[in-house]
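[Q] Does anyone have a clean structure-token version of this?
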Amino acid sequence: MLILIDDGKILFDKEKDELLDTHARVKGDNQYINEETRKLFLTLRQSRYGFEGITDQKMDVRRLLPGAVIERPTIEDIMLAYIGGDKYAH
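[A] Here you go.
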């Protein structure tokens, strides 16, 4: 079990495999990012070369961003996404 607590608030309490199965690192072209798709990400970083982000909504990402690359995140990626770590910008 992994429990992430930030400032006294439990952000998640899940088994490691469940956490990894429900989250994804997503990369792709900026053309896919709009008001609707931006909401799918816990964190999202964009540059002139494309975007990269962490999501907990893999099914919606697959449906709305068909050309995006979906990868398995690390536990660290997921934790940083929830607490706003400096690896990704909101």
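[Q] Thanks! Anything notable?
[A] The chain has one domain: 2-83.
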